[in-house]
Amino acid sequence: MRLLVIEDENALSDVIKAAFIDEKFEVDLAEDGETGYLLGSSGIYDAVILDGMLPKMDGYDVLNRWRREEMHTPVLMLTARSELEDKLKGLGLGADDYLTKPFDMEELVARIRVITRRQGAVRIDSLEFGDLRLNLDSGMIQNKENDDEVRLGKKEFQLLELFMRNQGQTLRREQIAEKLWGYDCESEYNNVEVYISFTRRKLKYIGSTVSIKAVRGIGYRLERIND
Question: How many angstroms separate the CA atoms of 115 and 223, rounded?
């Protein structure tokens, strides 16, 4: 999962980033409201941690603009204020949760996991497509027909999860690169092709009839080979 942290206190944002990397999140940072607004508007993030008081654009204004533009990514607001009025303001603008500084990092991680799961009515531990099952906890893929399985590398897992959460859709190479590597990385788009190749080999290894098909001039989509 990819997380955006919009926080102007560098020491705090670094600590938050480290905590979520330990939880296998990909994390991008923004130090001001304008940058955070633009990054969050991309739609590549699974959740946003948003400070209420930011330079260039207030966190409440950022959230208000997103919700007016129908950007529904879960947002947890951070603030140094503890007054009920401020909490109600953030929630009224569309925040999914609210945490007052100082806070316990374990609580922050737990709350982010809750609001990301809230998008689905039921907590799921696997995704399925055709004869393929992806275990979201272990990172294993299994052929349901013959029970063969293999573990995916980190980027292979993120790639296949992205395709399985967007079944039937053709994803542009740029979309995939932004989702897996974000905007700040120096990775070239050919990294997408490299990891698609790696993932295809593992699908073939377990004998799956599922494949990642190139759609010429557009991108890639997940298909059953016999379809």
Answer: 30
**Cα 41 to Cα 134, 158, 176, 191, distances in angstroms:** 29, 21, 16, 24
- Gap between the Cα atoms of 167 and 227, Å rounded: 14
3-class DSSP state of 123 = coil
Instruction: DSSP for 46-75, please give it.
Output: SEEEEESS-SSS-HHHHHHHHHHTT----E
The per-residue pLDDT string of the chain (227 residues; one tens digit each, 9 = 90 and over) reads 889 999 999 999 999 999 998 888 889 999 999 999 998 888 888 899 999 889 999 989 999 999 888 888 899 998 876 666 666 776 777 888 888 888 899 999 999 988 887 654 444 678 899 999 998 878 899 999 999 999 998 889 889 988 988 888 899 888 888 888 776 555 555 788 889 999 999 999 999 999 999 998 889 999 988 75
Domains and CATH numbers, the chain: 2-117 (3.40.50.2300), 126-224 (1.10.10.10)
> pTM of the full predicted structure?
0.61
Taking the C-alpha atoms of residue 110 and residue 161, their distance in angstroms, rounded to an integer, is 21
Contacts of 42 by beta carbon, 8 Å cutoff, 6+ apart: 178, 183
